[in-house]
Write a structure and sequence with these properties.
Layout (H helix, E strand, L loop, with lengths): L1 H8 L7 H13 L12 H13 L3 H26 L6 H11 L3 H10 L6 H5 L1 H22 L13 H13 L6 H7 L4 H24 L6 H25 L2
Helix pairs in contact: 2-4, 4-5, 4-6, 6-12, 8-11, 8-12, 10-11
């Protein structure tokens, strides 16, 4: 998913809505049993090979398809905003990032990789949905804090409106409209306030995580054991992303 997000966040498709839409239509075509009119990109071929493997489980397949469809929608929202130089609100950006970060498809792959056999209703339970939401938020918030490298030097005029205006234009020009810290800046926050705001969201995730765990019901020993494996898989995704940032 890292390669996919790079293509739409900073790559050649980030300002080309029509080409981005073609790529996504191509991506989803195999999952919809449709023939794509476009040539197969190598990235699409890799995705198709993953799709063929997860077809061994209908539940995993359905959840992977749903997650990839959501990812596609989020990525195209980013491209549309980028092409029109639109600055979303912080709330709008967070909602889009939850889709476009490419985290949710990994949850289905955790299920597949561990060979979990959980009833579909487990994934519809509010606690599991909340754990998935928190896992997604942890990845994107950590990523956006650590990957934000557009901090300017303001030695002579820290509060100058002109400087802040120029910074905003630089951030837009350098294509970091997908980064939540940058969006906070574009919505008028100075640098420290933007980082503090995203950090507050991040800290809230840790609190929400333990609340979600506390609200988990008991489904029986066998199912509970499988659920714990799934939850550890969500944790592993968060930790893997954080570790990769320091490689």
């Amino acid at each position: 998913m890292l390669i996919w997000t790079a293509v739409f966040d900073n790559g050649h498709l980030r300002q080309t809505p029509e080409k981005a839409k073609q790529m996504m239509d191509n991506l989803l075509s195999i999952m919809r049993n449709e023939e794509s009119p476009y040539p197969k990109d190598p990235l699409i071929e890799v995705h198709d090979s993953v799709w063929h493997r997860v077809t061994s489980s209908i539940g995993v397949q359905q959840r992977f398809y749903k997650a990839m469809t959501s990812y596609s929608r989020g990525a195209l929202e980013h491209v549309d905003r980028e092409s029109h130089a639109t600055i979303p609100s912080i709330e709008e950006q967070l909602a889009t990032r939850r889709r476009s970060s490419g985290v949710t498809p990994l949850f289905a792959l955790v299920e597949y990789a561990h060979g979990l056999d959980l009833p579909d209703e487990i994934f519809e339970h509010q606690s599991i949905k909340e754990i998935e939401r928190i896992g997604t938020d942890l990845v994107l918030l950590q990523n956006d804090i650590l990957s934000y490298r557009k901090e300017e030097v303001r030695k002579h005029s820290r509060s100058s409106p002109l400087i802040e205006y120029v910074i905003t234009k630089i951030l837009q020009a350098e294509g970091v409209n997908h980064n939540l810290v940058a969006i906070c800046r574009m919505n008028g926050m100075p640098a420290q306030q933007a980082f503090d705001h995203v950090n507050t969201l991040l800290r809230g995730c840790y609190r929400d995580w333990y609340l979600a765990l506390a609200d988990l019901p008991q489904w029986g020993e066998e199912i509970d054991s499988e659920v714990q494996k799934y939850i550890r898989g969500v944790q592993d995704i968060v930790l893997a992303n954080l570790s990769w940032r320091f490689v």
